[in-house]
Amino acid sequence: MTHPHSVALLFFGVLSVSACRSTGDDAGSRDSAPSVVSASAAPRTPADAPPIPVADGVNRAILGEIAPDFALPDVDGREHRLSKYRGKIVVLEWFNPNCRFVAYAYAEGPLREMHERYSAAGVVWLAINSISPEQAGADAATNRAFAAQHRLRTPILFDTTGVVGRSYGAKTTPHLFVINERGLLVYRGALDNAPLGRVESTASKINYVEAAIADLKSGHGVTMSDVRPYGSGVRYGRP
């Protein structure tokens, strides 16, 4: 059992995950492909780190259970409450406009068209920015500029306290979560197995989010529901 004092140290950021950087030695920015959580041990990255502590009274997202509700403002101040989307498939995408993994995914990777395609099909797609307000990329102007540049029409929500990100255990950008029509969390993990467009050896590209949504629309359970995310660590502020 974790000692209470250790939890407190974790909670106040002593072991907080690293910010999005361009340097090659940033553990949160490694270009390694994701692996299914049940796979054999791999070198430690922020995605392998212990679960992110949450404050007392805050629900932690658990696969197969109702996703914790939240209400967050978008860049224009409009509130979005998760429970209002019950009855629809919802994708939550942890987001940082200054992250190179996110920038690639929207410029050349699958996110350049996925959000629009799925939104047109009735899927709710919400990007969530949980980095602390003093960090670059947390301001509304930068997020609006990114959305305009990449024609991102889905909402970008601000989780300035980091409560929602911690509740879901969001570790990296991008980090994706899929919620089914009944409000159950059915997928968490990487967008795909191709960080910055590259896959390991001769592996075929797999888009895990697309696969999860396809499973839901076909009427059966999500085949691959828990995949280690890749990307740059989310730098949370103090709670």
Structure write-up:
- The strands form three sheets. Strands 5-4-3-7-8 form a five-stranded mixed beta sheet. It has a two-stranded antiparallel sheet with strand order 1-2. Strands 6-9 form a two-stranded antiparallel ribbon.
- The model is unreliable at 4-33 and 35-45 (pLDDT under 50).
- The protein is built from six helices and nine strands; from the N terminus they run αβββααβαβαβββαβ.
- It has one domain (59-233): Glutaredoxin (3-Layer(aba) Sandwich).
- By secondary structure, it is of the alpha/beta class.
- The chain has helices spanning 4-11, 100-107, 114-120, 140-149, 163-168, 208-218, and strands spanning 71-73, 79-81, 90-94, 124-129, 156-158, 172-173, 175-179, 185-189, 232-233.
